[in-house]
Amino acid sequence: MKRNIHVCHLFISLPRNNNEISGTYMIDLIESQNLIDGLVSGAVHVNPVKIGLTKKPPFIYFKGLLKKKQIERIRLKKTSPIFKAVNKRDSIEWRNKMIKVFDSYCKSYGKPDIVHAHSGRGAGEVALKLNEDFGIPFVVSEHNPKYISGDFTDDEIKRLNAVYRGASKILPVSKSMIPVIESIMSENRRDEIEVMPNALAKEFLVDSNIATKVSKGIVIVARLNENKSVDTALYALNKLIEMGYDGNLYIVGEGKKENDLKVLSAKLKIKDRVKILGFQEKKVISDLLPSMDALIICSKYEPFGLPVIEALSKGVPVVSTRCGGPEQISELLDGIYLVDFQDHENMAHKVIEAINDYPIMSKKREDLEKKALSVYGPNAIGNKWSNLYQDVLS
Fold first, then answer.
1. Is the pLDDT of residue 297 over 90?
2. Nearest-CA neighbor of 144 among 115, 117, 114, 169?
3. Are strands 248-252 and 114-118 parallel, antiparallel or unpaired?
4. What is the CATH number for 42?
5. In this structure, are residues 11 and 26 in contact, taking their beta carbons and an 8 Å threshold?
6. Closest Cα partner for 378 from 41, 73, 47?
7. What's the predicted TM-score (pTM) here?
8. Are strands 274-278 and 248-252 parallel, antiparallel or unpaired?
9. Domain, as residue range, for 217
10. DSSP 44
11. Whether residue 79 sits in one domain with residue 44
């Protein structure tokens, strides 16, 4: 018989520095786990943002179970992000603040059966300390593109190796990350590495709001940084226009490359066809997708590729670079077309192929939706986590 399991998640960072506790894959994971009978998940977090960047305290995060959420504000003296080059004192202070919030969490909800750290660096080190002090077993999820590129310093490898030795399981979001993780480990523990994918958020489980539909086009959902290589999408659109395509390119995201993209769109004389929408909540993205001919991914490294399953859950085909996660998703789901990194010409041709294969409102799009929900829906992924935790505790 399965036992009831209480899981406490440890976060190292969130994409946006505000009070919202929605809109991230980690929160999506907790919500999917709380749908499963016998599984209760909560979280603690101390956000190491720099003092001075915001008028709000350089704190943030929430602790709590799904039905009882609270905001926990913690002020840090030193606030460099733990996953960058910080000195030892900064790291220890951040870890101690996390342990302080964890202690408050335990007083409110009881000691968890298992700790789930999101990243071996930082959060994993806190989990290791809790394991040493209180005997709580822990698992570590890895989401970062660095686990494909292998861009780690010797110090990071040393720290990660110590965490991995203490962890019950190391859980990359795709098998493309396994070679780098194995290279970090000082001993052969391949049996403790298990792929655990992301889950769809609840916003993608409901019908989209037709009133928010826009003109036809292709869409990319990404942070506007070097790795996402969104400029490839502009070159692909330029090629598509040459081929007679009459849709727009919608860019959902924000980042330091935004101005570069505006300059490039003007240079290519396509700026009237490029719509930069900035950061958008998941509900907005869910409503936007059904109007799209295709979603594109241009990344160099993508550990999983959450926009891929989000698009497929709305029946939208995907054209993606071979960047890690999308290849694995394509082994389970149809509607994914793969091209080489920065190959904008082939990307354009694949977009036309996707449009022809999956017309808007077609039965084939309905089939994409059903399959994506059956494989990556909250219940499916939540049950996978429940079984994994049971195995660890047994």
1. yes
2. 117
3. unpaired
4. 3.40.50.2000
5. yes
6. 41
7. 0.84
8. parallel
9. 205-376
10. E
11. yes
